[in-house]
Amino acid sequence: MVGAAGAAIGGRISLCRNRGSRRSYNITQALLLRLKQAGAIGLRPTKVRKAVTAGSLLQEVEREQVEFNLEHQPNRLPMHPIPWYLAALGAALSWGIHYPLVEHALRRISLVSVLLLTAVPIALLAALFHEQIGADIRTVAGLGWRDKLPILTLMLTSLAGTVLLFTAIGARNAAMAAVIEISYPLFVALFAWLLFRRVEVNASLVIGGLLVFSGVAIIILNNR
To answer: What one-character DSSP code corresponds to residue 14?
Structure first.
């Protein structure tokens, strides 16, 4: 069924690209519905009308296929194995252990060597999950630059954040650097809106953020 529907839609794509008619839209919508029911694609009907009108159905189908594959890859690691608040507390505990270890290491070896040490687990994961990584590379390659660029920028933000944090730890100490760095949730809210227009702010976050910034200001003023 998937093969037949796929062949049929292939013939209709050129039709819809040349004609933005209601009839072409209805035919294509029916074919996409068959593909969706067969589990082959996740394109939503409202997007079909928009794509047909704009004459870009093929690109829209390909983009939606990438998103559908992302959500249905059988080998993908589970995203929510434990409650989010336990994961967050676990992350806090891990970083609480990590920062003093980084300070200890920076007193004895170079910043570059510490960075390489922290990258070893990532290299091991790359070897263990090479098939998943290969699939993800193909997925990113199939995205448009609007979706691709934020993903690739992770390399720069991760490196910059780590280098600056380790520099602060080495120049002062782990406790001071950690307390100041904890102000980052407010920047998360800011850039979530600037980059993706996502509003992730509520009253408790604003109040907590003001308290955090007040504490950061007091620490900086008294420890410069």
So the answer is: H
Cβ-based burial of 212 (10 A; exposed 0-12, middle 13-18, buried ≥19):
middle
CA distance 159 to 111: 12
pTM value?
A: 0.59
- Which distant-in-sequence residues (6+ apart) come within 8 Å of 36 by Cβ? 42, 43
Residues in the chain: 224
For 80, which DSSP code?
A: -
Residue 35: CB partners within 8 Å, gap ≥ 6? Answer: 2, 5, 6, 9, 41, 43
* Alpha-carbon torsion (21, 25, 26, 27), positive or negative: positive
**Are 139 and 70 within 8 A, CB to CB?**
yes
SS3 at position 41: coil
- The pLDDT tens digits for 84-125 are 778 888 888 999 999 999 999 999 999 999 999 999 998 898
